[in-house]
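Methods — Computational structure assignment.
A single polypeptide chain was analysed. Its primary sequence is given first, followed by the predicted tertiary structure written as structure tokens.
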Amino acid sequence: MNLINKKPVTIAEVKEHVKNLDEAAPIHIYIKKFSSLSKADALKLIEELRALNNVKLKEENFIKIADFLPVDAEDLNKICNETSLSEEEIQAILAIVKKYS
């Protein structure tokens, strides 16, 4: 098996890719436990985060924010641990996330 493409995806997107697997498969248990948003909402959230044009954030950060929906600066800093966000940047991100929580 060869890797054709490597792209980070949200849990909501994974849910669609594995929908034909046995419901008892470990991936379904994980998805059921951790999936909070629909695919459409996750993608809308990511687009709003991208619209902030914050060069400190990477695609992986957007995906993890959509997956975990941080509620405060501490949670967000755990996701974005490789960068130092200002208080204004944190509040802008959390305001967007709050709309989807």
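Note: Residues 34 and 67 are 8 Å apart (CA to CA).
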